[in-house]
Amino acid sequence: MSRSGRQERYLRAAAGLALCAALFAIAAPARAAADKALGEYLASECTSCHQLSGRSTGGIPAIIGWPEPQFVAVLESYGRKERDNQVMQAIVARLSHDDMAALAAYFGALKPKP
Questions:
Q1: Is the distance from CB of 42 to CB of 75 less than 8 angstroms?
Q2: Span of 28-37, 39-48, 96-105 with lowest mean pLDDT
C-alpha cells in the first residue's frame, strides 16, 4: 500500500473515532437522565423505610445527598453480606449494578429538607 493510501486509511479511522466520541458525549447526559429516572422509579421500595426528608428515623439512616460512589459501595457491601441487615440484603440481591447506580444518581441529586 502506498504512503498516501495509508494516510487516507488513518484519516478515515481517526474521523470514525472522532464521530464515535462525539456521539458518546452527546448520549452521556441522556444516559444520566435516564439513570435518575430509573432511580426514581426504583426508589419507592427504599422510601418505604428511608425518609425523603433526609432525616434519620428509628435507626434507619438518611440516604439523601450521598456521593454516588459511596451509595453504590454501601449497597454492594449488603450484597456481599458484609453489612448485617437481612432486609437490605434481600433488597440488594434483586438489584443489578445499573439499578444501584440509578438509585445512587437519584438519591444523590436530592437535597435534605430543612
A1: no
A2: 28-37
Which region among 20-29, 61-70, 94-103 has the lowest average model confidence (pLDDT)?
20-29
Residues 6+ apart with CB under 8 A from 61: 50
Distance CA 89, CA 59 (A): 17
CA pair distance 46, 29, nearest whole angstrom: 25
**pTM for this structure?**
0.70
How many angstroms separate the CA atoms of 106 and 111, rounded? 10
